[in-house]
Design goal:
eight-stranded parallel β-sheet, single chain, 38% helix, alpha/beta
Length: 425
């Protein structure tokens, strides 16, 4: 993916945007705001990725430390052990730090959740010094408990944990939809987008503001998918629109809203979950589009989010056989993860979707998925289906030369840079 490609002319870009590769259902975007579309720089055109031969093994992406890494991050990285550097790549549920919980309990949204930091959890953090935790509804009881919990988590390690949550607005909102919190509730991303970019920006300013007040550093939002498949079981109104241009404008507005509240944000689910017929929580999702078709539709909001300065990009468990020639999920695919670094010129942090989803666990062990994701070029391993197995597998892969330590350094530096931006280090 080291080729350079000519920039699309405005005329050609316009033709692509109205192509049938991403034609929305008639009338479904009629309520979009009439506000003028902001000028958006078109990225270099992306040529279709050549499918790999079925028996070929793509080379591990070469990743070096970015020139933009600060001296403070480099100094901290240099003082870390291998285990500490590997740990920065792991973001887990707090329940995964409780040795009394089985993996089934950890994954079960209805099981009792961890709501305070215990001595046993601190001991797990010493053994597996993860980089971040992700809170769910079962980890939250009321505002005071949340304040206390995030404070204790931040204070638990010399390199503070990054605390994340899913707070999209609408159906996915761990705090706003919790009865113990008096917070604004939004119908959906689609409904707010119908009011225009200012409404979207204000929604994420509001969400970012209350997350910051509760000590939450990162929101796994906004959703950058284009909702083109009415039969999609998981995206729906979580997406801003079924029109890629509208979705792009709204993603730009959302990223700006978070930035104004100094809360980190993450666009998802690359390379696009909106046209799939599967829920990757339950099975591997598949897009049957070619790279050219993705470029004309699904990739546009991701390009917009990257240009707007998103802090992270989440890669989904979505196979793209017309692009790669295989059914490897994007989250584990060197070709698809590599396209973010190459064709989309993205230098920031890349995170997998939850590695405990059945789209991964049906095919890969926790250790296999973790190693493959890092080899593919991912920086953050989100909620592996077995922390100790995944962590130990990555450490072993570095020690036996399967993964270069410089590869770990590059990803750990990206995570540390997020913490630096957030003011944690």
């Amino acid at each position: 993916m080291q080729k350079s490609f000519p920039v699309l002319s405005a005329a050609v870009a316009a033709c692509i945007l109205v192509s049938t590769a991403c034609a929305p259902a008639a009338g479904t975007d009629a309520q979009a705001s009439p506000a003028p579309q902001p000028t958006m720089v078109v990225e270099p055109a992306v040529q279709p990725v050549q499918p790999a031969a079925p028996d070929s093994q793509p080379a591990e992406p070469t990743q070096e430390l970015s020139d933009n890494v600060s001296s403070a991050v480099l100094d901290r990285l240099a003082a870390m052990t291998l285990q500490e550097k590997v740990g920065q790549l792991f973001f887990v549920r707090p329940d995964a730090l409780d040795p009394a919980q089985t993996q089934e309990q950890i994954n079960d949204a209805n099981a009792a959740g961890v709501t305070e930091l215990t001595d046993e959890m601190n001991a797990m953090l010493a053994k597996y010094p993860v980089g971040g935790v992700v809170l769910f509804g079962k980890n939250i009881t009321d505002p005071q408990q949340l304040d206390d919990f995030t404070g204790a988590l931040h204070a638990s390690m010399d390199t503070p944990l990054l605390i994340g949550i899913d707070e999209e607005g609408g159906s996915v909102a761990r705090l706003a939809n919790h009865n113990a919190f008096d917070l604004p509730r939004y119908e959906s991303a689609t409904a707010v987008a119908a009011e225009g970019e200012n409404a979207v920006r204000q929604m994420y300013q509001t969400i970012g503001g209350y997350l910051d007040s509760y000590g939450i550093d990162l929101d796994f939002a906004p959703d950058a998918d284009v909702n083109t498949n009415p039969d999609n079981p998981i995206i729906g109104t979580r997406a801003f629109s079924d029109n890629p241009q509208t979705a792009s404008r709204m993603v730009t507005a959302a990223v700006a809203g978070f930035e104004e509240r100094h809360v980190l944000c993450c666009i998802k689910h690359y390379p696009g979950h909106g046209d799939t017929a599967e829920d990757s929580h339950k099975a591997l999702a598949v897009t049957h589009k070619t790279w050219a078709e993705l470029e004309a539709c699904e990739l546009l909001p991701f390009q917009a989010g990257i240009q707007a300065g998103t802090d992270l990009v989440m890669v989904g468990h979505i196979a793209a056989p017309e692009v790669t020639g295989n059914d490897v999920p994007a989250s584990l695919s060197p070709q698809l993860v590599g396209s973010l670094r190459g064709e989309l010129d993205y230098a920031g942090a890349i995170v997998t979707d939850s590695l405990a989803m059945e789209g991964i666990t049906d095919q890969y062990s926790a250790g296999e998925a973790a190693v493959l994701a890092i080899q593919a070029g991912v920086d953050i391993l989100l909620m592996p289906n077995g922390l100790s197995e995944a962590f130990d597998a990555v450490v072993a892969a570095v020690e036996n030369g399967t993964i270069a330590e410089s590869r770990i350094d590059a990803s750990a530096a990206r995570v540390l840079s997020l913490k630096e931006k957030r003011g944690l280090i």
